[in-house]
Task: inverse folding
């Protein structure tokens, strides 16, 4: 980066006076920072959290709140869901690749049940109710949902489908304000405060401090333009979020996301990654992205998606992020949703938490597929051929081409409409610092950097390419706990 000199580490001998001191200093008060603070405090450490905004929460508090957990959690069992760590691992290995960290996925799946129990013990509530409809999240306070395409092709042929999207309960929720994410963060920060964790707000990380041996012993930050020095007697935990809002980093690593960040906050500027890089930290999967397609899954599932050549390219009952990734990465961000009048009316009569698409009429409406094809501007015959093949098999309730589930397979009739979904995608970054299973930041040499730990979206977690809703809050909180314990024992 052009301003790399500003993130170079500072020598401890040059610091002089420390403004704050603690055994463990956590930078960032989202889900990874909160869980790190709790576990460090429980391990007997004096903990100080530095947060750049005016309060706790970060992107986690503004999110829908999904935590991806499985393997037989108490919530799954209460709702009659059969799952195992091995089944969960088989799915995640297929869905989050290629190039997943196999050891980290295995570790996460094996520890998933214990992690759910731990969250409940901190006061995070989960309602024993399953939501089985297509959608980004349940419309109310249901506690469990398919949140990764586990029950859609091709993954339903790879592993036994099990819902693993665990959602904290919140009455009268409002995603982006007070939703499931808020009801995850509130109990965690309350627990941290009860354990004596201190917090300093409006403090922006600038660089790390190292001693003569190269061990991280503190941070240099700014508050309202004034330099702030913070000593960490045992270790520093970075929990600073992704780089989705760092234009230079996005251009360098994830150019498909240029000018389309979504589901992240502007504070996600990659600072945690950059200060660790200045110490020689290793990076992983910096090109990995989550992508949302801004359309209602209840509408998508009842139609067919075609690309810029008028061809279907993905089962329409897939997890919406898989649709978004496929559209942006493999279809040049070109997509059209074809749906007939009867199916659209049916979709409009359903309950959904993501019905923004319904407020807009279709882009094109026609009395025949041939007419619609011409209105969109496709070459003559291409869309007609696609729909003819789809309808031929749909008459028997099958989709041999892509494997859409029979319950959603209906012939496309007339009148017929199309939504122009070109460019209607956005997302956030998944790559970051490489960490080991104890959340120690790994140097390019392969050895851990002494005194430095990290968790959350500033690290490369369990995702390498694909995504499932709940992976960020899941591995962020899971490895945040590891970071806190390891830092306290450092």
Result:
């Amino acid at each position: 980066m052009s301003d790399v000199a500003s993130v170079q580490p500072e020598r401890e001998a040059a610091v002089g006076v420390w403004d704050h001191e603690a055994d463990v200093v956590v930078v960032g008060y989202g889900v990874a920072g909160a869980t790190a603070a709790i576990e460090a405090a429980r391990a007997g450490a004096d903990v100080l959290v530095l947060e750049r905004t005016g309060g706790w929460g970060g992107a986690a508090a503004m999110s829908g709140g999904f935590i991806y957990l499985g393997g037989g959690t108490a919530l799954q069992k209460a709702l009659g869901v059969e799952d195992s760590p091995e089944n969960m691992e088989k799915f995640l290995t297929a869905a989050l690749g290629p190039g997943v960290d196999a050891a980290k996925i295995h570790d996460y799946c094996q520890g998933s049940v214990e992690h759910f129990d731990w969250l409940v013990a901190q006061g995070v509530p989960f309602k024993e109710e399953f939501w089985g409809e297509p959608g980004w999240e349940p419309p109310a306070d249901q506690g469990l949902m398919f949140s990764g395409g586990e029950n859609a092709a091709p993954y339903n042929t790879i592993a036994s489908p099990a819902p693993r999207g665990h959602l904290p309960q919140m009455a009268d929720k409002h995603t982006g304000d007070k939703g499931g994410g808020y009801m995850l963060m509130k109990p965690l920060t309350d627990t941290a405060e009860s354990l004596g964790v201190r917090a300093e707000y409006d403090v922006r990380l600038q660089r790390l401090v190292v001693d003569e041996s190269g061990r991280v012993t503190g941070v240099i930050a700014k508050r309202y333009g004034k330099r702030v020095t913070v000593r960490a007697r045992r270790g520093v935990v970075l929990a600073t979020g992704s780089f989705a809002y760092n234009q230079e980093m996005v251009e360098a690593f994830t150019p498909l996301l240029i000018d389309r960040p979504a589901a992240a906050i502007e504070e996600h500027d990659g600072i945690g990654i950059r200060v660790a890089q200045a110490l020689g930290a290793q990076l992983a999967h910096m090109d990995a992205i989550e992508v949302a397609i801004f359309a209602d899954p209840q509408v998508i599932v009842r139609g067919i998606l075609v690309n810029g050549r008028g061809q279907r390219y993905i089962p329409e009952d897939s997890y919406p992020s898989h649709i978004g990734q496929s559209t942006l990465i493999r279809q040049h961000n070109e997509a059209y949703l074809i749906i007939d009048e009867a199916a659209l009316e049916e979709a409009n009569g359903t309950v959904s938490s993501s019905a923004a698409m319904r407020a807009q009429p279709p882009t094109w409406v026609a009395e025949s597929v041939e007419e619609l094809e011409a209105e969109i501007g496709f070459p003559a015959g291409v869309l007609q051929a696609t729909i003819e093949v789809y309808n031929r098999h749909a008459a028997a309730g099958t989709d041999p081409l892509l494997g859409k589930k029979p319950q959603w397979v209906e012939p496309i009739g007339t009148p017929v409409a199309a939504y122009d979904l070109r460019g209607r995608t956005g997302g956030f970054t998944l790559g970051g610092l490489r960490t080991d299973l104890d959340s120690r930041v790994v140097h390019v040499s392969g050895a851990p950097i002494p005194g430095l730990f990290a968790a959350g979206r500033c690290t490369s977690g369990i995702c390498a390419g694909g995504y499932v809703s709940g992976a960020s809050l899941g591995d962020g909180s899971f490895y945040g706990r590891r970071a806190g314990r390891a830092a306290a024992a450092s």
Q: What stands out?
A: The first helix runs from residue 31 to 42. The chain has 15 helices and 21 strands.
